[in-house]
Specification:
Length: 325
């Protein structure tokens, strides 16, 4: 009897302080194009566990690797409609809703993680987060999910922009990516990441560009011969969900989600940074030629992209933030 009384008292207490008594009152399904082997996925696992702990199990995060819930764009649309979904997505795909986000994917904005982290945790960036909410109904949880610098993945050696002439190169469909690949000399060919392996295998495309962990995750070493380290786009991504769903959460859970997302983004990003050398060695062991080149010709070729997309003034401001000025 005492046990029942204690349980009843506990239940009353929980109700009194308005803490949801049921386990997992809220569930968030997180979609990513990446494979479970990707260092970034470890960050998502850390996010899942951190949120469970911070909310005493009231918010459950479910992870869906390899785009199990569909292409990123589809999941973004579901989030817009208020579905309890989130997606790991780059700024280029958000630029259709809020233009400034596109600059995050612009060529040679910053090198490494630390500079990009300063940009996406700045007050300036938080202004964009608010604008995005109003423009499209998306809520950014954090944007410090660094996946590494993107390089050229080809079936022949590349020494400069001229070698890309006529090559059909897969890229995400956002304007900033398309303009960058075009400026580098290739013919941009947008398609979902999940289709790249077969497209290369069947010569539908001649090349792709991606960060090293994604190359391994998609087993592209089987269908390319060369990786040229251009580092043309420093891939920073964010965890983006539905603003309507987010607003339905108690305030302390909203806070917990954003704090845990920022912390997990660091786990993902530093994990990626620490894994890059081993991943590169692994690719070389599999027979891929990984080549360092002078990136100056590519930097010069892509410099115009900022102005073409109206990001000229932003570039200077963000490069100053990235440099810690």
């Amino acid at each position: 009897m005492t046990h029942h009384k204690a349980a009843a008292a506990l239940a009353a207490t929980l109700l009194a302080v308005a803490v949801p008594a049921a386990a997992a009152d809220y569930t968030l399904n997180v979609n990513t194009a990446l494979a479970v082997e990707d260092p970034l996925y470890k960050g998502l696992e850390s996010f899942r566990d951190g949120v469970a702990e911070a909310t005493d199990g009231a918010v459950e995060i479910r992870l869906f690797p390899n785009s199990q819930l569909g292409p990123d764009e589809d999941v973004l649309e579901q989030a817009r409609a208020g579905a309890p979904v989130a997606v790991v997505v780059d700024g280029g795909r958000l630029a259709v809703f809020q233009n400034e986000f596109g600059v995050l994917g612009a060529p040679y904005l910053a090198s490494g993680y630390d500079g990009m982290r300063r940009v996406v945790t700045s007050d300036r960036f938080e202004e964009w987060v608010e604008k995005l909410r109003e423009a499209s109904g998306h809520q950014v949880l954090s944007f410090n999910w660094w996946q590494g610098e993107r390089h050229l993945l080809t079936q022949k050696p590349i020494e400069g922009p001229a070698d890309l002439s006529g090559l059909r190169m897969r890229t995400p469909g956002a304007p900033v990516w398309v303009e960058t690949i075009s400026a580098m000399g290739a013919t941009p060919t947008p398609m979902p990441w999940g289709e790249v392996y077969s497209a290369l295998q069947q010569n539908v495309i001649d090349a792709a560009e991606a960060q090293l962990p994604a190359v391994v995750g998609a087993r592209l070493d089987e269908v390319i011969t060369d990786i040229t380290k251009t580092g043309h786009i420093n891939l920073i991504t964010g965890l983006v969900t539905s603003a309507a769903w987010f607003d339905s959460l108690p305030e302390d859970f909203q806070r917990a989600l954003r704090e845990e997302a920022l912390e997990a983004g660091d786990v993902a990003s530093y994990g990626t940074r620490d894994a890059l050398a081993a991943i590169e060695a692994d690719l070389e062991a599999k027979g891929v030629n990984v080549v360092e080149i002078d990136t100056t010709p590519f930097r010069e070729a892509t410099a115009s992209v900022y102005d073409e997309l109206g990001y000229g003034a932003l570039r200077d401001e963000l490069q100053a933030i990235a440099a810690g000025e």
